[in-house]
Amino acid sequence: MSNILKLTLICSLIFHVLMGKAAGVGELKQIKENYRQMLIPSSIEQDSLLSDLIKIKPEKEMSDQAVVELHQLYPFDLKKIDGYLSLMSADGSWTDINYADTKRSGWEPKLHAERILELSKLYYSKTTEHYHSEKVKEAIHLALKYWFDTKPRCLNWWYNQIGIPKTLGAAFILLEEQLTDQEHRAAVAVMENAKFGMTGQNKVWLAGNVLIRALLQNDADLVKAARDAIASEIVLGRKEGIKDDWSFHQHGPQQQFGNYGLSFVTGMSFFFQLFKDTDYEFTGQQREILVSLIDKGYRWVIWNRYMDVSSLGRQFFHNAQIHKAYSLAFAAEDMGLAGFPAHGNTLIGHKHFDDSDYTVHRSKDWMSSVKMASRRVIGTELVNEDNLKGYYLGDGATYYYVRGDEYLEVFPFWDWRKIPGVTSYEDIAPMPNVNVTRSGNNSDLVGGLSNGKIGMTAMELNRDGLEAHKVWLFADKFVFCLGADIHSDTTLCVTTSIDQRSKSGELYVWNKKKWSAITGAEAFRQKDLRFFHDAVGYIVLDGDTCVAQSEEREGRWSDFMGMYTPATLHGEVAALHLRHGVKPSGASYQYIVLPAATKKEVEEFDPKMIRVIKNDKVAQVVSSPSCGEGYWMAVYQSENFDIEGLFFKAVLPGIYYVEKGLGGLEIKLSSPFRISK
């Protein structure tokens, strides 16, 4: 090879390397610009969703990362920001922040980082007179210096590796051209607290923080590695993350729609926009998975911009149902998806999330859900003093929505042993610690069956010496709830809660052919009891003593969410529950719930349209013209059945819908219970 040819090849190689680096730098520059544009608040007039959000009063105490980021969408509160500036000390700290705070949730020093980000956004926003303000600029640098010098650390690793780098990282991207060399090195050091690792949403958070560090260091290779780590979680079927039924799991086999799953969706929608029109953008397949997660998962759990209580996970914060629903709606909008209106249901149907032991039923006018647990699925968790009283949240919790706000802010006034739908012990002792005794149900016989419009959900409850068989049959106009073989081995009274919600109007009982308001607590023993409250009717057909409560209660958020400042509040609650007595043996119940009903409809409802054929520990069999011509069966033991002279053999325990055929009963739909290995 001639020297000229060698020189030509070398020059060509250098040219392509330099051009590749130039292209890489250009891509990083575009990503940074995308990042900055996404951080600056948008115009309210251009976004109807945002204009709806700002009508909701902002929270003062926040721990949920999704809610923190949601509040960053609010317009600047200049009065509050003036307060920040007046409370800043000469060393860059704020006098109203407890930097010695040891809470693991709602850690106060995080407010310092959040204020740095807020001031940085204010400095670069042209919507106020603080744009490029020297006063704001000076405050930002003072606050940065304090953080870099003191290096606050939380006892909860999440803040150190995820929460703080995520918040300050966004500020660093905005401030990059303003940072001195020393500040830049300190900023990179903050971001180095995050490393690649973990699973599910934790992995995405950590990779997102590594991405910010890579952008600050202009490291294209590390940007790609971070992007690939983020995108690697956009898959189905892993132990944690997006499940095959489009639910989301984290911390083991546990439904986490409103906690880690919500952060996953909001984070991925952010990255979708961040990488858009660059070499790093998500593939078509990855986008399709994210769209399906929203359409086939999240759409089911949002009703009139309220998230189902059973999707909140452990996060029972102020206005949690509202904030989480809005966070999801913004994420969907960023992905180019609509259909989360404040009023009007656009999704009608019935779905059982088999991976999560979770059922959602949606009619035109109302929604209901059931959350269960099994040997396969964890019911709930207690982490960082979040959810201190939620021990029974996975034991068949059942909620009914017409507006969506029926359970909003009721949590301080709940009897947490009488969560709607749950069969449990009545006790004044402190709630068991779910992290010690776990929230699992010691049975595999849990599941659901759906034809897409209606369905049956069943649960064998076996926990803490209490056993019961519970069934829910969902039709277009009603939910039929059936319990069998309820027994326990303790001296505590066993109850089944029908409902427990915020009082809205009177709780009425149908008595002597007229509606009478309940005052305080009243007990009833007769059958065919009818109640009405807040557009919902309740007909108790059987189930020992029924207690109706319409009363004022007091409570504190801090009793079940440790991050809150203790403060006693008062609220009114309407509740119904059944008392099965001490050491019940073979107790049962039957009741009907009529959501979106009128008093007249409750008066005239004919319970004979629902026939209970069998109700024991072997099987629960129900028939109703509203649910088809056949029989809905929850079968707990493999057996030959004679159903009104028609024969059926259940080879496997499970839920079946059967109809009359030539040789007896024929299976039209079936869902065998999933037996854990």
From TrEMBL:
Keywords: Calcium. Residues 89-333 form the Polysaccharide lyase 8 N-terminal alpha-helical domain. SUPFAM superfamilies: Chondroitin AC/alginate lyase, Galactose mutarotase-like. GO terms for cellular component: extracellular region. GO terms for molecular function: carbohydrate binding; carbon-oxygen lyase activity, acting on polysaccharides. Pfam families: Lyase_8, Lyase_8_N. InterPro entries: Chondroitin_lyas (IPR008929), Gal_mutarotase_sf_dom (IPR011013), GH-type_carb-bd (IPR014718), Lyase_8 (IPR038970), Lyase_8_alpha_N (IPR012970), Lyase_8_central_dom (IPR003159). GO terms for biological process: carbohydrate metabolic process. Residues 350-597 form the Polysaccharide lyase family 8 central domain. Its cofactor is Ca(2+). The active site is at H251, Y260, R314. Belongs to the polysaccharide lyase 8 family. Monomer. PANTHER family: HYALURONATE LYASE. This is Chondroitin AC lyase.
